[in-house]
Amino acid sequence: MRKVHSQLSIIFIGLYLVCSLVLLLTAENLLQQNMQDQLVENMKTQCQLIDESLLQYNGNSYAVVDRLAGYVGARVTLIDSVGNVILDTRVDVNETPLENHIERDEVVQALNSPDHFGNSRRYSQTLQQNLLYTAYDAPSGYIIRIAHDLDFIDDNVLKIRFILVIAATVSSLIALLSILNLSRYLTRPISHLIGMTKRIADGNYSTTPDINQRNEIGELGRSIKSMGEKLRSNIEQYERVQEVRRDFIANASHELKTPVSAIKGYVETLLDGALENKQVNRRFLERALSNVERLEIIVNDMLDLSRLESYQQSRDERYIRLEDYIRNLLEDFNRKARDKGLALNYDNKLPVDFRLLVDTYHLDKAIINLMDNAVKYTEKGSVTVHSFLEGGKCIIKVADTGRGIKKEDLGRIFERFYRVDKARSRELGGSGLGLAIVKHVMEMYKGSVSVESELDKGSTFTLKFPV
Ligand SMILES: Nc1ncnc2c1ncn2[C@@H]1O[C@H](COP(=O)(O)OP(=O)(O)O)[C@@H](O)[C@H]1O
Ligand SMILES: [Mg+2]
């Protein structure tokens, strides 16, 4: 893997080198220009001095020029006003006459410029070296030209370049080291974050950031941490759901198996000859039928539950007048209650025009299951329904004077297929899913179901709907 800090370092060092190079070249150029300008100024003064001497010593002036050229360490050329070279301190013009100099750059400039000076830099064919020429259109009538060799400037620039290069190299190394350190310092927190995400990927969800910075990176660490926690809670929830599913299927098959094998037993016995036996055949068929009815009850409750689970989004909610709804529903239980000699009461304390927003299919499932249990598990006394508003909730209580439920069972009766007395419940036609359905409905409506019960005294189930 390529590391951010090495990429950063490469970019920084690249920039650093480019900057150093630009700086070096600029410095060199400035230096060279400066030295050359300085030299030109000196040469101008030298020209003026030579001119002065020529005016003073008329006579053997050429010898003076020669001496002066020796002092300033330069080549001096005297040119007349039409360009003929009269004297050159490096060439004997009597032996090898020089061509006319009127076209030379520095001469042209000197003749045309207001300060009477001209200069140019070029390679001298005569002396085979780089020379800087300064020409002076002097009052003495001559054009005085001085040529200075430039090698000493180039030598100096070379020396300074050497020093600059060494300085640049050393400072580059120092910069490289500090950039490496700096970028490692900057990217270390990122490595920590990578470590965190790796730990999460390995299933260690409650990982805390090793960094506690107050910047974006610290923020990222904290949000990775909370992401890990959410992930864990989602996975735990998913596993719980899976477990509930598995249990449900196991329990359901177990519940269905009993009546199915009973039916199979009766039918086989009948086919084995009991069919001809007038004394038992009818009784066996009746028993088979009662097992089929049991199957039907269980399957219907399972269907209710799965329908509630899959259709909870598409509810057909309407405002209903709860009081009327409960009165109607109690009518349906009148006969069952009378048959068992139970009194059926309704104690309504709802405001006259109170309406509840609910899908009556769901409300039926909740209240009918509670009423059914109350009547089923009560032998004498009464079943009373209360309805009222309290603390911003609509409350429906179903209270009976039945056998009650033991404390240790209270916590479990809302589980699917849980029954306190299996045999007795089965006899009374229960699947053990009724209260699980009630609980599911109440969760759909963000309400709740709870129970209070005392053994042999009775039970009270309470539904609370948010209003
Ligand atoms: N009103 C009640 N009085 C006493 N026991 C009750 C009452 N309601 C429920 N139970 C107990 O809770 C168990 C679970 O109820 P439920 O889920 O409706 O299943 P069932 O199909 O057995 O009625 C019942 O088997 C019963 O033991
Ligand atoms: Mg029930």
- Identify the bound ligands: adenosine-5'-diphosphate, magnesium ion
Globular, elongated, flat, extended or rod-shaped: what is the shape?
Answer: rod-shaped
Mean pLDDT: 90
Question: How many DSSP helices?
Answer: 11
In angstroms, what is the radius of gyration? Answer: 56 Å
Examine the coordinates and then state which fold CATH places here, giving the name of the CATH topology of the domain at 313-466. Heat Shock Protein 90
- SS elements, strand count: 12
Structural class: alpha+beta
Summarize the main sheet: 5 strands, antiparallel
Determine and state the CATH class of the domain at 313-466. Answer: Alpha Beta
Unreliable stretches (pLDDT < 50, length at least 5) are none
Fourth CATH level, the homologous superfamily of the domain at 313-466:
Histidine kinase-like ATPase, C-terminal domain
SSE order, as H and E? HHEEHEEEHHHEHEEHEEHHHEE
Ends apart, CA distance between termini: 59 Å
Percent of residues in beta strands: 15-25%
Q: Can you walk through the features of this model?
A:
By secondary structure, the protein is α+β, with helices and mostly antiparallel strands. Among the domains are: 4-156, Beta-Lactamase (2-Layer Sandwich); 313-466, Histidine kinase-like ATPase, C-terminal domain (Heat Shock Protein 90). The protein has eleven helices and twelve strands. It has helices at 4-56, 61-72, 105-112, 151-201, 216-271, 281-310, 322-340, 360-376, 407-410, 422-427, 434-444, and strands spanning 75-79, 85-88, 117-124, 129-137, 143-149, 318-321, 343-348, 355-358, 382-390, 393-400, 448-454, 458-466. Strands 2-1-5-4-3 form a five-stranded antiparallel β-sheet. A five-stranded mixed β-sheet has the order 7-9-10-12-11, covered by helices on one side. α7 (322-340) runs parallel beside α8 and α8 runs antiparallel to α11. The longest helix has 56 residues, at 216-271. It starts with a helix and ends with a strand. The model has no long low-confidence stretch (mean pLDDT 90). Residues 369, 372-373, 430, 434 line the site of magnesium ion.
